[in-house]
Automatic annotation (TrEMBL):
Coiled coil: none annotated. The gene is folK. InterPro entries: Hppk, Hppk_sf. One of its GO terms (biological process) is tetrahydrofolate biosynthetic process. Pathway: Cofactor biosynthesis; tetrahydrofolate biosynthesis; 2-amino-4-hydroxy-6-hydroxymethyl-7,8-dihydropteridine diphosphate from 7,8-dihydroneopterin triphosphate: step 4/4. It comes from the Bacteria. It catalyses: 6-hydroxymethyl-7,8-dihydropterin + ATP = (7,8-dihydropterin-6-yl)methyl diphosphate + AMP + H(+). Its EC number is 2.7.6.3. Residues 88-99 form the 7,8-dihydro-6-hydroxymethylpterin-pyrophosphokinase domain. Keywords: ATP-binding, Folate biosynthesis, Kinase, Nucleotide-binding, Transferase. One of its GO terms (molecular function) is kinase activity. It comes from Streptococcus troglodytae. This is 2-amino-4-hydroxy-6-hydroxymethyldihydropteridine diphosphokinase.
Length: 159
């Protein structure tokens, strides 16, 4: 079993319902146990900023799924919850990103673990810090708490 951290975000429709439905589906993946869920935070959009605010959270799973099977499962959940990929960083009903998969480092095609932008994103680091402040980034060799000190957290509000 491998500890995995996922980031979930939504900025279309009933954001809270989409987050909860995604969490429910993740908790019922085969050979997977939900271990922790952060509080929900509201943040402005990142990347493409002219869109509605996001609700974001991070969860910790323990799974026997491979990183590739987990990515496929996350994409199926997104599709089931009506995620449409019209534009990069555009609005979405649900977004599920793999942040960490144990200490695994993968840079292949669409699968990049650890997530390549997580150290720059307060909307990821704040909720991640709530459930895993001492987790060490396998590439940067710094804890989540240290990474969080380096970003502007002012736009991340508990929801």
């Amino acid at each position: 079993m491998t500890l995995v951290y996922l980031s979930l975000g939504s900025n279309i429709g009933n954001r809270q319902i989409y987050l909860q439905k995604a969490l429910d589906k993740l908790a019922h993946l085969p050979h997977t146990t939900m271990q922790a869920v952060s509080p929900v935070y509201e943040t402005a959009a990142w990347g493409k900023v002219d869109q509605a605010d996001f609700l974001n959270l991070v969860c910790r799973l323990e799974t026997e799924l491979s990183p590739y099977d987990l990515l496929e499962a996350c994409q199926k959940i997104e599709k089931h919850l009506n995620r449409v990929r019209h534009e990069h960083w555009g609005p979405r009903t649900i977004d599920i990103d793999i942040l960490f998969y144990g200490n695994t480092i993968i840079k292949e095609g669409t699968l990049k673990i650890p997530h390549p932008y997580l150290q720059n994103r307060a909307f990821v680091l704040v909720p991640l810090n709530d459930i895993a402040s001492e987790l060490v980034h396998p590439v940067l060799k710094e804890t989540v708490a240290v990474l969080l000190e380096k970003v502007d957290k002012s736009g991340v509000k508990i929801w």
